[in-house]
Amino acid sequence: MGFFDFLNEKIAVDLGTSNTLITYKGKIAINNPSIIALNQITGKVIAVGKEAGMMRGKINRNIKTVSPFSNGVISNFDAAEKMLKTFIKKLSPISAKAFSSSYNMIISIPCGSTEVEIRAVRESAKRLNAKNVFLIYEPIAAAIGGGLDIMQPKGNMIVDIGGGTTEIAVISMGRIIKGQSVKIAGNIFNDDIRQYIRMSHNLHIGEAMAEKVKIQVGSAIDNLESPPENINIEGRDLLTGKPKQTFLSYKEIGRSLDKSISQIENAIMDTLSEIPPEISADIYNTGIYLTGGGSMLRGLDIRLSKFTELPVHLGDQPLQTVIKGSDIVLKKLDIYKDTLVKDRN
Ligand SMILES: Nc1ncnc2c1ncn2[C@@H]1O[C@H](COP(=O)(O)OP(=O)(O)OP(=O)(O)O)[C@@H](O)[C@H]1O
């Protein structure tokens, strides 16, 4: 590849609380945890993504690992920008050198982003030398990535359960009619599991163990058709301080998630109750499109369908729908320009 191949390139970025995905030349080129390892003293980048993730929790006085997001929004802009810059440099050896201001970049943002946050994301992207920076709300990108025809005068409801936020939006003609971003998502599910195991089994488990428990046996209902086997959970006994293990069933873990899932259900109902009746009628037929990593929780589609009395469609590859949608928009700006967040400057 030569220098000029990088000119007029298109880069789509999904900066998520848990994962960062970047497409380059229409393919997913970066798919990594959103973590950066920095030198404590100099602030220099030591590693990003998976490599940085492996350093997390390991004791080294000179290295600190940072997750630039909390609850779906960028909480550490300096770290987020450094992480993104390092990822972009990895896209191609030439790009690292060229880094010319000749590429178009689209970044997806939560629908609850404030004007200040939106401006900060635009400015960060500009500092990374992007020629044109486009922003798109995550549920719109998810809908397009999931193959929904959102440009029609017809209502569609999207529920995108990520790591930090659940984005709930009703979309029609490419615009969000009603949307909200609730801070109950995958990370809170992990906290629920940790707290439950602590309270009811006197067992202190780490973040990674909670994530493993959620993925292996997490469930939104207690009558799964094909239940997973009980899981062996290891941690520290709070009473004796000794390492301890215990076996738990999916039903027990499911109970710990009940309250958070109810909060998501209530947020969906709030959104549904605030839309015009014509759009309600559409959604009665189209149902809810469920996506994001958190949508993979067993039985969640069944539970939400029962609660809302609406059909719930689970997309495939839910971790990739937002980035796929953003990539499509960037390639077909003529069709999708109205779906972009307006630049008020
Ligand atoms: N099989 C699974 N079952 C349940 N949850 C899962 C599964 N696989 C991944 N997850 C969860 O999905 C979440 C990450 O999803 P995703 O990548 O869509 O979020 P994100 O875009 O990083 O976050 P946000 O949109 O909040 O910024 C994590 O909390 C992860 O634990």
From TrEMBL:
Single GO MF descriptor: ATP binding
Gene3D superfamilies in the cross-refs: 3.30.420.40
Keywords: ATP-binding, Cell shape, Cytoplasm, Nucleotide-binding
Main location: cytoplasm
Pfam families, sorted: MreB_Mbl
Gene Ontology annotations for the cellular component aspect, listed alphabetically: cytoplasm
Domain of life: Bacteria
InterPro entries: ATPase_NBD, MreB, MreB_MamK-like
Location(s) in or outside the cell: Cytoplasm
Residues reported to bind ATP: 163-165, 211-214
BP GO annotations: cell morphogenesis; regulation of cell shape
Quaternary structure annotation from Swiss-Prot or TrEMBL: Forms polymers.
HAMAP family: MreB
Role description: Forms membrane-associated dynamic filaments that are essential for cell shape determination. Acts by regulating cell wall synthesis and cell elongation, and thus cell shape. A feedback loop between cell geometry and MreB localization may maintain elongated cell shape by targeting cell wall growth to regions of negative cell wall curvature.
Family note: Belongs to the FtsA/MreB family.
Name listed for the protein in its UniProt record: Cell shape-determining protein MreB
Organism, scientific name: Aquimarina algicola
Gene assigned in the entry: mreB
